[in-house]
Amino acid sequence: MTTIPERFAADPRTGSGLPDAALIEHESRMVGELMTELGRVIVGQRAMLERLLIGLLADGHVLLEGVPGLAKTLAVRTLAGAIDAAFHRVQFTPDLLPADLLGTQIYNQRTGDFTVQKGPIFTNLLLADEINRAPAKVQSALLEAMQEKQVTIGGQTFPLPELFLVLATQNPIEHEGTYPLPEAQVDRFMFKLLVTYPARAEEREVLDRMVALEEPGPERLMEPSRVLTARRLVHSVYADARIKEYVLDLVGATRRPADAGLAELAPLIEFGASPRAAIFLLRAAKAHAFIRGRAYVTPDDIKALGLDVLRHRVILTYRADAEGVGPDALLGRIFEAVPVP
């Protein structure tokens, strides 16, 4: 049975209770089976698949950035099939309208009334393919759904399903006909994942699979209700006060690097991470601990997910760009400097 180390035990002063470690350990096996099923269809890309599962368990939207052909769309579609979730894919284009995504009002000549025709956003998993190709009006329409889990059509507000995630892709090498995502929207994504090329052995396996008569598909392992049950367990995963202080130290160092002994980084950072970064980092760390069968968060959970949670929230200056310093390199120095509890 997974137990909570003494140094991460509940603080009697806060009254926080311990989670059911045995239940979490038992339920986390479900995630292991789901990961195995995804791996049966997707070759390699284990880090991407694990982050997609963490986003699912921690209720966080995911932004996938990578060149075409890296199985980003296939991974999302496979995940939806494995959990028997409703799935819609929307190809974002410069001429896309908010109504194409949210829905619109349709006039009924027989009754003389307007009825609402709901759009593809009313689903469990929404794949926003090449999200940076859509103009500002579409991006702003998506904001309400991502944050509030509701959609307004013609003055009426409609709730989205409890299990609702936006999994978006964008191409980093093509800029013609694209619109940079507004910072307010980027901040709504829990993760920004950089999807890279597979290893040679993995690519050979892809070739062997894709020339077969039938491409492999996922088996349904669970229903959305089971995912929501797992989410509640993830919420109960214990995070010690020192873990929370560690998260705040990391996020604070992106805003005031001099406080962490990194004064030389101050000219390279224009804006640090938002408070939402700390919330998402802790929630993601709880899900990371859960899928490993642990009922408590450790600093390793924070460090494992730190880059994916923070890289799109730190805005660098022109000087950083001129010196060739990217967000990952800068954040790596922050993680090295901030003391680990």
Note the overall shape: globular
Helix content: 40-55%
The CATH superfamily of the largest domain bears the name P-loop containing nucleotide triphosphate hydrolases
Report how far apart the termini are.
Answer: 24 Å
The CATH topology of the largest domain comes to Rossmann fold
Sequence of secondary-structure elements = HHEHEHEEEHEEEHEHHHEHHEHH
Q: What is the CATH level 1 assignment of the largest domain?
A: Alpha Beta
Mean pLDDT: 84
The chain-level structural class is alpha/beta
Beta-strand share of residues: 15-25%
Rg measurement, Å = 21 Å
Count of beta strands: 11
Oligomerization status of the protein chains: single chain
CATH architectural type of the largest domain: 3-Layer(aba) Sandwich
Supply the number of structural domains.
2
What is the helix tally? 13
